[in-house]
Automatic annotation (TrEMBL):
Residues 3-248 form the Glycosyl transferase domain. This is Glycosyl transferase 48 domain-containing protein. It comes from the Eukaryota. One of its GO terms (molecular function) is 1,3-beta-D-glucan synthase activity. GO terms for cellular component: 1,3-beta-D-glucan synthase complex; plasma membrane. Coiled coil: none annotated. It holds the Pfam family Glucan_synthase. GO terms for biological process: (1->3)-beta-D-glucan biosynthetic process; fungal-type cell wall polysaccharide biosynthetic process.
Length: 284
């Protein structure tokens, strides 16, 4: 029996996993792709046959099928060349493991809302970035303009969004489509949900230290800057300010005691005590 021999080998200087793993795997696997487009996807998503039949329509979203008959050099400034190229085409995920419990259903609903309503609104105002799987990207455009993933430990915990900022800062357009989705299986226990939220917040803090934020914050026009700010770092900053304001107002109020409780039943009972006077309300 003949032994299998590898055709291609890559010499590594040391440990191949220097970062959190995913970004290093992407940077290592990118040299083996062939073609013009890539779909960045994790190990836990699933796909469906009926969704795979839509790939041709998805690739049409890059607007490269109808090639212009105008000469780029002779017709400089023509209206057909004023549109920026499409770099990313975003999609959403369907978490099929949401039926385990109420926490799983709430977490899956939150992610579905972000992948549909929020992504649709951000794409319409031109502030959507790349948030990971299952987005499609123009591989030729991205590999010649910084790559698809950043992999510096301690700075690129959310490695996907840096590809979106790279495309955003280099004139690329990021679209969102509604008709394609991927399934995804995720452990949605209480600790897993908290770890995911911690990862999102920690990654946003690291993004504020990056040079991409500096470039976008100093070079964008005021309208695109505000859409970028309120769609990404402003959300976390304002949540932090709201929490601090509630804590500060609770400490500075002398003699005021604020109490908020929800009873686990079909009705919700809200109790508020201010200046030793109790107020209550019930909702069904």
């Amino acid at each position: 029996m003949a032994h299998r021999r590898s055709k291609f080998r890559i010499e590594l200087p040391g440990n191949p996993v220097l970062d959190d793993g995913k970004s290093d795997n992407q940077n290592h696997a990118i040299i083996f792709y062939c073609g013009e487009y890539l779909q960045l996807i994790d190990a836990n998503p699933d796909n469906y046959l009926e969704e795979c039949l839509k790939i041709r329509n998805v690739l049409g979203e890059f607007e490269e099928y109808a090639v212009s008959c105008q000469s780029l050099y002779a017709q400089w400034g023509h209206k057909e060349f004023k549109k920026n190229p499409v770099t990313f085409v975003g999609a959403h995920e369907y978490i099929f493991s949401k039926n385990i419990g109420i926490l799983d259903d709430l977490a899956a609903g939150k992610e579905q809302t972000f992948g549909t309503l929020t992504a649709r609104s951000l794409a319409w105002i031109g502030a959507k970035l790349h948030y990971g799987h299952p987005d499609f990207l123009n591989a030729i455009d991205m590999n010649t303009r910084g790559g698809v993933s950043k992999a510096q430990k301690g700075l690129h915990l959310n490695e996907d969004i840096y590809a979106g900022m790279t495309a955003f800062g280099r004139g690329g357009r990021i679209k969102h489509m509604e008709y394609y989705q991927c399934g995804k299986g995720r452990d949605l226990g209480f600790s897993t949900i908290l770890n995911f939220q911690t990862k999102i917040g920690t990654g946003m803090g690291e993004q504020m230290l990056s040079r991409e934020y500096y470039y976008l914050g100093t070079q964008l026009s005021i309208d695109r800057f505000l859409t970028f700010y309120y769609g990404h770092p402003g959300f976390h900053i304002h949540n932090m300010l709201i929490i601090l304001s509630v804590q500060t107002s609770g400490k500075t109020s002398r003699g005021n005691n604020l109490r908020f409780c929800i009873m686990p039943a079909t009705s919700a009972n809200f109790c508020l005590t201010v200046n030793n006077r109790a107020y209550s309300a019930s909702f069904w």
